[in-house]
Specification:
The complex is a heterodimer of chains A (about 750) and B (about 130). With about 750 residues, chain A is of the alpha+beta class. Chain A contains 19 helices and 23 strands. In chain A, strand 9 and strand 10 (about 305-315) form a beta hairpin. In chain A, helix 4 runs antiparallel to helix 7. Chain A is elongated, with a radius of gyration of 56 Å. Chain B is α/β, with parallel strands linked by helices. Chain B is about 40% helix and about 20% strand. Chain B has helices at about 10-25, 35-45, 60-70, 90-95, 115-120, and strands at about 5-10, 30-35, 50-55, 80-85, 100-105. Chain B is globular, with a radius of gyration of 13 Å. Classes of the chains: A alpha+beta (about 750), B alpha/beta (about 130). The interface between A and B is large, with 41 and 42 residues.
Chain lengths: ~750, ~130
C-alpha cells in the first residue's frame, strides 16, 4: 500500500463519453504497446502510466476465470448492489464500485456514484492496476501521483483519490476490484483497507455460491443424461463398490439376470461358476490399475440356464468401486457354432470329394486344397498349401515346351474375372508324369474385386481309357456284325437279281422277304451303333459356318430316291442363311425327319420343308401329308422303338430309331426338335440357334454317328425288286460320304 | 478289254459274293486273295487293273497290305479301293488320306458293286474326288 495522501474530492458523473471516445480512437491498435511507450515517455500521451498485465498465459487464465463467472455485461444484481452500497456507506465515499477487468476494459458490475454497466478502457483503469499487481492500490491524491496525474479520469473527470482491493474468482484469479473513489484528495488508512477487504470477501463468497449452483446444475444434468443412457442401452450396467456390493443397476441388467432388484447383492453371485467368479476377481484387480478390462464370463439368470456375456469392467474415478457392463453374446456364440459346423461340413465335403478342389489367391498360390488334389498331384495331403500351382505343376506342356504363367488359363481367369472350363488340360505330377484333367476355374470376388479362384480338376485318364475302349468296342462290333451281313446281303441281292439263274416264283418271293429283312437288320445295326456313339457322350461336333440351303439340299437329295419310289413329292421353301453348325449332323437329323415324313405320306402327297429365320434361331418345319400322329403317341415317337403304331414298323420298314437319333443330334447343337400341331398330317419343327454354343465340348469322346456308313447308293432303293420303297433311307447320308461315292 | 480285279478279303463269304457280283453283274475277271501274302503273290504273278482291299484282316491289315502292293513296281499306279466295315468318320478320313482311289463301305450292294468301283476309280468319267476331303 502506497502512502496515504490528503483526500481530494470532485464529482465525476459524466465520464463515460470521454472514455468511449478513447476506446474508439485506439481500436485496432496494440493498446499495450501504446501503454508501454506511454510509460517510457512519461507524460504527454494523456493517460498517465497504465498498469502492465502479467505474463500472457497467466493473464489468459485470469480472463478465462472471469468469463466463467458469467457476470460481464449482465443485468444488475441486487446482491452486489447491496455490497457497494454498504461500502459507500461505511467509508462515506461518493463513489463505490465493483469493477471487473478483462483484457481490454474495466466493466462496472455494481456502482454507487457511477452507473452499473459503465466501462472504461483498461489503459486508464485504476482497477487494472489492482488486478495486474494482485494487490490493493491506494491513491490519496491523484494529482500528486505521477501514474495518474495525466489520467483522463483525473484531468477530465476530476477524480481526486482512489482505494481498491482485489476481488478473486473461486479459483484464486484476480478478476476485478472493489474500490472507492472521491473528487478530493483523502486520507486512506488501514481502516478503509480492512473494510474493503472484508466486503471483497463477501463478493467472493457470492462468486463461490454462484459457481456451486452452476456445478450442481451441471452435475444434475450429467446424472440425468447418464441415467437416460444407462436405462436405454441393451447392455446390462451394474455399479458396485470395492467389496462387490451392487449399488446401482440399469433395467437391462435386471432383465439379463431375471432379478427384480440387484442393489445390495454381491456382484459375483450373478455369475454361473466359481471359475467365472475367480475371473471377475482377476479382472477387478487389473481394473484397479488400468481402465477398462474386458472378458467373457457366464451369467446365471434367476431360474434360467447360464449364458455367455461379454463383460467390461472399469474402476470409478473416485476409487469407490467399479462399473461393469455386460452384453449377451449367446447369439454370437450360436452363430459361431453354426459357422464352425458349416466349416466342418464344408471340410468334410472337400475331403470326400473325388474331384481335386483347390483355392488359389490372385498370384496363383494355393490357399487350400482337398485330399483329392494332393492325390492328383501325388503329394502328401496338405503339402499343396502355400505353393505356386502353376510354377510347380503346370510349367511345362507334354510336348516339352515351357508354359508361361501369363499364357495359363488360370492366369486369365484371375486377370479377367471370367470363369473357364476345359475338357482337357494337362498338369504335371510330383513324379514328373503328366495327368490329363478336366478343368474348371471360377473367380472368387469380394465386393466385385477378384480375390482368387477355385479350381476343380478331375483326373480323366480313366474316362479317356473307357472312352477309348467304348470306341474300340463300337468299331469291333461294327466290323463283326457287318461282315456276315455283307455276305448275306450280297448273296440275296445276287439271287434276287437273277444273277444266279431263274428262280421258282415261291423261292424268289421268299428270298425277297429275306432280302427286305436283311436290309432292315443292317439299318438297325447302323442306328444302334449311332445311338451307342451318341450315348458315349456328346458327339464330336465340328461346328463350322454352313449354308442352310446346302443342309436342306443335301437332306432332300438323300431322300429323293425313296420319295420318288413312293411317289411322294418333296417341296422346299427355304431362305438361305449361314449358320454355325456341324453340317453333317444336321443333314442327318433332317434326313431322318424327311425319311420319316415320306414313309408316312400316302402316294401322291407332298412333303414340305419350310424355314423360319429369326435373329437368334432358325426353325425348319417338315410337314407330311399323312394321317398325323395320334395324340397319345406325340412324345413316344421320340423314344427309341417308339413308333406310333407297332404295326407301322413292319409296314413301313422304319427302325424306330430315326426320330430319337434326330432329336439327340439337334439337342447336341443346343436346338430343339418337336412335333407341332397341324390339321393335315404331322409337322416336325427343328429349331437351331444361329450361333453354336456346344454345351459339353468333349474332345475325348468316341465321336458321333457314322456319317460315311453308306458309301454306296442306297442299298435297297436301287434293287428294283421291292414293290415300293420299303426302306428307311440311310439316315447318315451326308456331304462327307462324297469321299467315297 | 475286260478289267481284272484283285479282291482281297479274309472272309470267304465276302470274297465269293464279290466274285459273283463283279463277274456276273460287272463282267470282270476276278482273282481273290485271303491275306497280304496271297495278294502280293497274285499281283506279282499278274498285275490287276484294280484292287478291292479289305481293311481289317488278321496279321497284315489293309493299309500295310497296300504298302506292300505299292512296293511292287507293276502295282505303283494301279487304283486301289478300300472296302471296309469300319466306318467311323476318323477311320474313313484316315483311310482316304492313303494312296487309294476311294473307300467303299460294307455291306455293299452286290448288284451295283462293279458300277460303284468304276465310279470310284474314275473309269466312268472324270475322276472322283475320292480322298480329297
Amino acid at each position: 500500500v502506497t502512502g496515504a495522501a490528503p483526500a481530494g474530492a470532485g464529482a465525476r458523473r459524466d465520464d463515460r463519453p470521454a472514455v468511449r471516445r478513447d476506446l474508439r480512437a485506439s481500436a485496432g491498435r496494440d493498446l499495450r504497446a501504446d501503454a508501454r511507450s506511454g510509460a517510457r515517455s512519461g507524460r504527454g500521451v494523456g493517460i498517465g502510466i497504465p498498469s502492465v498485465p502479467a505474463h500472457p498465459a497467466v493473464e489468459a487464465a485470469r480472463v478465462s476465470a472471469l468469463h466463467q463467472l458469467d457476470l460481464l455485461d449482465t443485468a444488475p444484481d441486487a446482491r452486489f448492489d447491496r455490497i457497494v452500497r454498504t461500502v459507500a456507506r461505511l467509508l462515506d465515499a461518493p463513489i463505490a464500485l465493483l469493477n471487473l477487468v478483462d483484457d481490454r476494459r474495466q466493466w462496472t458490475k455494481a456502482g454507487v456514484g457511477m452507473p452499473q454497466g459503465g466501462e472504461a478502457h483498461r489503459s486508464i483503469s485504476f482497477c487494472a492496476h489492482v488486478v495486474d499487481e494482485a494487490a490493493p492500490l491506494a491513491v490519496p491524491d491523484t494529482r500528486r501521483d505521477d501514474r495518474f496525474r495525466d489520467n483522463p479520469q483525473v484531468v477530465e473527470d476530476g477524480l481526486g483519490c482512489y482505494l481498491g482491493v482485489p476481488v478473486r474468482s473461486p479459483g484464486g484469479h484476480v478478476v476485478g476490484s472493489l474500490c472507492i473513489a472521491g473528487h478530493e484528495p483523502r486520507q486512506l488508512g488501514d481502516r478503509e483497507l480492512s473494510i474493503l477487504h472484508d466486503l471483497a470477501a463477501w463478493v467472493e463468497a457470492e462468486f463461490r455460491s454462484d459457481a456451486l449452483g452452476r456445478a450442481t446444475r451441471e452435475e444434475r444434468t450429467v446424472r440425468e443424461r447418464l441415467e437416460v443412457i444407462t436405462s436405454s442401452v441393451g447392455d446390462g450396467v451394474v455399479v458396485f463398490d470395492a467389496r462387490g456390493r451392487i449399488t446401482d443397476a440399469n433395467p437391462a441388467a435386471l432383465l439379463m439376470t431375471g432379478d427384480g432388484e440387484l442393489v445390495g447383492r454381491d456382484v459375483t453371485s450373478l455369475l454361473a461358476t466359481p471359475a467365472d467368479r475367480a475371473a471377475l476377481t482377476r479382472m477387478l484387480r487389473r481394473g484397479e490399475l488400468h481402465a477398462p478390462v474386458e472378458s467373457e464370463l457366464r451369467l446365471e439368470p434367476r431360474g434360467g440356464l447360464p449364458y455367455p456375456v461379454a463383460v467390461t469392467v472399469a474402476s470409478m474415478h473416485d476409487g469407490g468401486g467399479f462399473v461393469a457392463t455386460a452384453r449377451d453374446v449367446s447369439e454370437q456364440h450360436r452363430h459361431l457354432r453354426e459357422l464352425e459346423q458349416l466349416q466342418r461340413q464344408h471340410r468334410r465335403i472337400l475331403d470326400v470329394a473325388g474331384d481335386a478342389i483347390i483355392g488359389i489367391d490372385t498370384r496363383g498360390v494355393v490357399e487350400y486344397a482337398n485330399p483329392a488334389a494332393a492325390r492328383l498331384f501325388g503329394v502328401p495331403d496338405g503339402d499343396l498349401v502355400g505353393i505356386d500351382l502353376h510354377a510347380s505343376f503346370h510349367h511345362t506342356s507334354p510336348d516339352g515346351r515351357a508354359v508361361r504363367w501369363e499364357r495359363c488359363r488360370t492366369h486369365h481367369v484371375l486377370a479377367t474375372g471370367t470363369a473357364h472350363t476345359d475338357a482337357e488340360e494337362v498338369y504335371l505330377r510330383s513324379d514328373g508324369t503328366f495327368v490329363a484333367v478336366e478343368y474348371a476355374a471360377t473367380p472368387q470376388r469380394v465386393d466385385g474385386r477378384v480375390t482368387g479362384a477355385v479350381m476343380v480338376m478331375r483326373d480323366v485318364t480313366t474316362r479317356r481309357e473307357l472312352d477309348r475302349l467304348k470306341a474300340d468296342f463300337v468299331s469291333a462290333v461294327s466290323h463283326e456284325l457287318r461282315t456276315p451281313l455283307t455276305s448275306i446281303k450280297g448273296t440275296l441281292s445276287l439271287a434276287c437279281g437273277g444273277v444266279l439263274g431263274d428262280l421258282p416264283d415261291d423261292v424268289a418271293s421268299m428270298l425277297a422277304i429275306a432280302q427286305t429283312s436283311t436290309d432292315r437288320l443292317i439299318r438297325l445295326v447302323n442306328d444302334l451303333l449311332d445311338l451307342t456313339r451318341l450315348d458315349a457322350g456328346a458327339a464330336d461336333l465340328r461346328p463350322a459356318p454352313t449354308r442352310l440351303a446346302t443342309v436342306v439340299g443335301d437332306a432332300l437329295d438323300a431322300v429323293r430316291p425313296c420319295a420318288d419310289g413312293a411317289r411322294v413329292e418333296l417341296v422346299a421353301d427355304v431362305t438361305d442363311v449361314t449358320l454355325t453348325l456341324d453340317g453333317d449332323r444336321i443333314v442327318q437329323a433332317l434326313t431322318n425327319l424327311l425319311a420319316n415324313a415320306v414313309r408316312y405320306s400316302p402316294s401322291g402327297e407332298r412333303v414340305h420343308v419350310l424355314a423360319e429365320v429369326t435373329d437368334t434361331s432358325v426353325t425348319l418345319s417338315v410337314r407330311e401329308g399323312g394321317r398325323g400322329v395320334p395324340v397319345e403317341a406325340r412324345e413316344r415317337i421320340f423314344e427309341r422303338f417308339g413308333q406310333a403304331d407297332a404295326s407301322d414298323s413292319r409296314e413301313r420298314d422304319g427302325t424306330g430309331l430315326g426320330l430319337p437319333i434326330a432329336r439327340e443330334l439337334v439337342e447336341q447343337h443346343g436346338g430343339r426338335l418337336w412335333l407341332g400341331e397341324s390339321e393335315t398330317g404331322a409337322v416336325f419343327h427343328l429349331e437351331l440357334p444361329r450361333v453354336q454354343r456346344p454345351s459339353v465340348p468333349d474332345r475325348g469322346s468316341a465321336g458321333g454317328p457314322d456319317p460315311t456308313r453308306s458309301t454306296g447308293p442306297d442299298p435297297t432303293c436301287s434293287t428294283g425288286l421291292a414293290p415300293t420303297c420299303s426302306t428307311e433311307l440311310d439316315p447318315s447320308r451326308s456331304t462327307r460320304e462324297r469321299t467315297a461315292p | 478289254m475286260t478289267p481284272t480285279v484283285l479282291m482281297v478279303d479274309d472272309d470267304h463269304g465276302i470274297r465269293e459274293v464279290a466274285r459273283l457280283a463283279l463277274e456276273r453283274v460287272g463282267g470282270w475277271r476276278v482273282r481273290t486273295a485271303a491275306d497280304a501274302e496271297e495278294a502280293v503273290a497274285s499281283a506279282t504273278a499278274e498285275a490287276p487293273d484294280v484292287v478291292l482291299l479289305d481293311v481289317m484282316m488278321p496279321g497284315t491289315d489293309g493299309p500295310s497290305t497296300l504298302a506292300r502292293l505299292r512296293a511292287l513296281p507293276a502295282m505303283r499306279d494301279v487304283p486301289v479301293v478300300f472296302l471296309t466295315a469300319k466306318l467311323q468318320p476318323e477311320e474313313v478320313t484316315r483311310l482316304a488320306a492313303l494312296d487309294v482311289a476311294g473307300v467303299l463301305g460294307k455291306p455293299f450292294d452286290a448288284m451295283t458293286l462293279a458300277a460303284d468301283v468304276r465310279r470310284t476309280v474314275g473309269w466312268d468319267g472324270p475322276p472322283s474326288v475320292a480322298g480329297a476331303s
